Structures are given as structure tokens and as C-alpha cells.
Amino acid sequence: MQDFLLDDTDRAFRSEVRAFLQRELAPRAADIEDRQNWDAVKAVVRSLGEAGYLRLMFADVYKGTLAKPGLTHATILSEEAAAINYAFETTIATALSCAYPLHRHASERVREAYLGPILDGAAVGAICVTEPDAGSDASGLQTRVEFDARTDEWVVNGLKRYISNASVADVYIVYGATPAGDDAKQGLTAVAVPKDARGISFPRNYTFMGRRGCIVGEVKFDDCRVPAGNLLGARGDAFRIMRGMFNFERAILGGSGLGVARSAFAIAREHAQTRRAFGQALGCKQLIWDKIAQMSWRIDAAELITYRATKMYDAGIDGRALMKEAAMAKLVATETANFCANETVQILGGDGITKEYGRAEQLYRDARALTIVGGTSEMAKYLIASRDLPDLKINL
Ligand SMILES: Cc1cc2nc3c(=O)[nH]c(=O)nc-3n(C[C@H](O)[C@H](O)[C@H](O)COP(=O)(O)OP(=O)(O)OC[C@H]3O[C@@H](n4cnc5c(N)ncnc54)[C@H](O)[C@@H]3O)c2cc1C
């Protein structure tokens, strides 16, 4: 479609990153998918960092050519990367989710130690929220982050699961509960934990149906100690930090969904025009025509909704004022990715479920994670309706 919410600068940027990713990511995509080669992932992260693309969200440290870099450009980057390899793209999203609290809430020493290397692509970060008994309900975290005044350290105890980049990340942003103290109420606290801290371990990695090449596993903390200065923001105030991350994370996931949807649609269109059945191109059949039309309008709707959210964010609208639009971007684009990947497999018939015919089956497997990660579709719907029914309290 003519992406009319984007201006000429945004479109030129899209062409630039598309060419960059064709050069750096496309030749490594099969290695990432088929051999789950982390070194290949890291090499592309490094080149993205060196080119300045991991700084798009942080205008004060940005060094590139855009006059006003922002979420729109970070989302374009995600969309273009996900169109080639969604597993790889998750490392960009995770890098940004990690960089955001470091950039806004870390001490100068911690920023220097971890933020710069992540933005340069020299280091990788991870975000540790989810636990065995606390997923969608992040208010129920059982990991404890407690202050030991004797040693002037934060002490972390608990188990996190489904953590992207577990064991390969250099730094972990860990969210946990802090009990009430003399001068503070009970609340969530976030600390930065380096990979080599004593007491951190990585019990296991998961095998997923899709996103192959992105390492996801458990992270365990046994009396894991970090200096007092590794605190992010204020003690007991990490829910605010987490909330600040949600809007941009959801918009970026809109970009991920769009990338996957677009790639699937391209395969479906090609097949509908070249495959012959009953004496005609397959695409002439009414039921196939309908599938093409449905994919087409859903992708356009997802694109409009996603870039509406990014443009609002770049115009300074955030927090509650952006919650509904950001949740819509995540919901519509990730559901569209699943719809398109599923219909593409159907249009391809047997070819759709083999590895012989392009990436249809990979996109189908990859898409499935999108409606779960970064907040499920169900949670996104609660956020949307909560703005439409402001006087009702939702029964979660
Ligand atoms: C590949 C992958 C990578 C991930 N990376 C990270 C990461 O880097 N860091 C991190 O912290 N987490 C990560 N996660 C975790 C992810 O954020 C959670 O899986 C997600 O938030 C859902 O939590 P859950 O899996 O515990 O499911 P649950 O919360 O148990 O939900 C199960 C189902 O019930 C539904 N549900 C829950 N509550 C309600 C309700 N009140 N009403 C209706 N339906 C409800 C959910 O929508 C879902 O469909 C990752 C997950 C995956 C799969």
C-alpha cells in the first residue's frame, strides 16, 4: 500500500535499512533458522549497532543521518528485519527493551558499563519479568529483590522463565518484589545484573515450534548480589519503569507482525498467480480470491494502526494517552501475521507444509509466538476496552 502515514524521510529510511538488512541479515537467515547459529545473530546485531541503528529511540545519543529519529524508524527497522527473519528481529526488540530502562533510569556508572555496549551492538541484554507463576499477571512476581544494608548490595532470589537471550546476554534487567522497609512501601524493584554476577545461573533453554535461532530459557538467582548502584529508578518503583516500556514495545511488536504478514502475503500472491488448477491460475478461484483480499485489507489496517501509534509516540503522546493505540497495534498486527501465515499455507496446499517451497511453513511457526510475547492478545483487548468503558472495572 502507499504508506501515507510515513513521509519521504521515513520511506528513504525504509529503503536504506532494507538494503542494509538484505546485505547483512538475508545471507545469514538460513543459518539462523536451520542451525540456530547464535554467532550469526550476534554478527548482525554487531553490524546494526555499528551502523547506529540501535540508537534510533534515543535521540540524545543518536549519531546517524536522520534529523528526528524515533519509534517510527525503530518500528520500520523491526518490520524490515522480521520480514527476513523474525527470530533475529526479536534481538532488536529485546535490545531496546533493555536499553530503555538503562537509558532513563540507570546511574552514570551503570549506563556506561551496559548501555553503550548494547547500543553499539557489542553486548546483548535480556529482560527478566516472567516467572513460572506470574506471566500475564506481572503484579504477582515472586522473585525478591532485597537490599542488604550491611554490604550495600541488592540481593536477588527467584526463577525467571521464557527469557529471550537467557545465557547469551551480557546483562539482565531483573524485576522483583521488595518487601516494605523502614522508609519504603512494598513494591517492585528493578536492578541490572551482569552475566558474571555470583548466584546467577541458566538452568535450561526451551525448544519452541518457531523463532528458531533466538535463544530463550530460564534464569535463576540464588542470593545473587549486585552493588547498590545497580538499582534502576527508585526502590519499589519498577512498575512505573515497566509501564513506560509497554507502549513502545507494543508498537515495535506491531512492526514484527507486519514483517511476518507481508512476507507470507508475498508468497501467497506469487503462488496464486503461478499455480494452475482446473485449467486456470489458482488465484482465479473465488475462494482463493477471497483469501487474498482478506490478507490484503488486514495488512493495510495493521500498517495504518501500527504507524498511527508510532507517529503519536514521536509527537510526544505516551502513557495512558497512547495505551489503547499501542495495544491495538500489537493486537491487530500480530493477529494479522497469524491470519496471513495460516492462509498462505492453505493456498500453497502440500507445498505450504514442506520445507521444499520457500518459507511458508517457517512463517506459520514463527507467527504463533507473536500473539503471546510482550503481552497476549487477551491482555491487549483488556487494555483497549478499558479505554472504551472507563467507568467499569474489568474483572481480570
Ligand atoms: C518466545 C518467547 C519469548 C519470551 N521472552 C520473554 C522475555 O524476554 N522476558 C520476559 O519477561 N518474558 C518473556 N516471555 C514471556 C511472555 O511475556 C509470556 O509468555 C506472556 O506474557 C504470557 O504469560 P504466560 O506464558 O505465563 O501465560 P499466562 O499468563 O499463564 O496466560 C495463559 C493464557 O491465559 C490467558 N489469560 C491469562 N489471564 C487471563 C485473564 N485474566 N483473562 C483471560 N485470559 C487470560 C492469556 O492471554 C493466555 O492466553 C517470552 C515468551 C515466549 C513464548
From TrEMBL:
Domain of life, per lineage: Bacteria
Which cofactors go with this protein? FAD
Could you confirm whether the keyword Flavoprotein appears in this record? yes
InterPro entries, A to Z: Acyl-CoA_DH_CS, Acyl-CoA_Oxase/DH_mid-dom, Acyl-CoA_Oxase/DH_mid-dom_sf, AcylCo_DH-like_C, AcylCo_DH/oxidase_C, AcylCoA_DH/ox_N, AcylCoA_DH/ox_N_sf, AcylCoA_DH/oxidase_NM_dom_sf
Q: Which CDD domains match?
A: ACAD
Limits of the Acyl-CoA oxidase/dehydrogenase middle domain? 126-224
Q: Which GO terms label this protein's molecular function in UniProt?
A: acyl-CoA dehydrogenase activity; flavin adenine dinucleotide binding
What keywords tag this UniProt record?
FAD, Flavoprotein
Q: What Pfam families is this protein classified in?
A: Acyl-CoA_dh_1 (PF00441), Acyl-CoA_dh_M (PF02770), Acyl-CoA_dh_N (PF02771)
The Acyl-CoA dehydrogenase/oxidase C-terminal domain extends over 239-387
Protein name as it appears in the record:
Acyl-CoA dehydrogenase
Origin species: Caballeronia terrestris
